[in-house]
Amino acid sequence: xxxxxxxxxxxxxxxxxxxxxxxxxxxxxxxxxxxxxxxxxxxxxxxxxxxxxxxxxxxxxxxxxxxxxxxxxxxxxxxxxxxxxxxxxxxxxxxxxxxxxxxxxxxxxxxxxxxxxxxxxxxxxxxxxxxxxxxxxxxxxxxxxxxxxxxxxxxxxxxxxxxxxxxxxxxxxxxxxxxxxxxxxxxxxxxxxxxxxxxxxxxxxxxxxxxxxxxxxxxxxxxxxxxxxxxxxxxxxxxxxxxxxxxxxxxxxxxxxxx
Length: 259
Known about the structure:
Number of domains: 2
Distance between the termini: 31 Å
Strand content: 15-25%
CATH class of the largest domain: Alpha Beta
Order of helices and strands: EEHEEHHEEHEEHHEHEHHHH
Low-confidence stretches: none
Largest sheet: 6 strands, mixed
Strand order of the largest sheet: 1-2-3-5-7-10
Number of strands: 10
Structural class: alpha/beta
CATH architecture of the largest domain: Alpha-Beta Complex
CATH superfamily of the largest domain: 2-enoyl-CoA Hydratase, Chain A, domain 1
Mean pLDDT: 94
């Protein structure tokens, strides 16, 4: 276990906290590796139905990569290979089979911005700020291009990348990459409500449906429908689908078995 990444599970919800408030929760190699390890644990744990990530303190969700700490003592090849760890983390999240929520307070910048948008849902306090400041230090936000382009119009992504300007929570919601903005004192309740609603669904159907969503994201319509058609039949063959339909007919709450 790492002191820089905290993990707790309650009521079907796994919570990952980046615990580096003194560095605005910047991502180190250890943070990235530990987050990936915890996602693997969560993926195999049937008691975890939803993942929430957040940052410690009230200043930042994650201010991006730890630019100084990540470069210390690393050779060129190791440094190049390590830079792919964030991309691997994104893929872990998309292939998790369980819903993910980013709980945002304060800054979500650079890699932290990409990390937030790699989640299924983003719930932000009204003090949140997002941005890609890499251009101002002679870098480019290569690694987060995919989650950003998947979350807002491409020309808006390019504007943010080229200008490095900050986006406040209300504009983020208008652009569409934040699902919900709430006052600071309502953030935890809003995240809990969403996580609880997601955790109450059939884990089997959530996995099948969510996996198919990500599988067809970048496909053309004809190609996507070839995958989605058999997925419908497969879903109707699950115990949870049969239970859901029976419960609907009998006007009662379904009892999910996760299979």
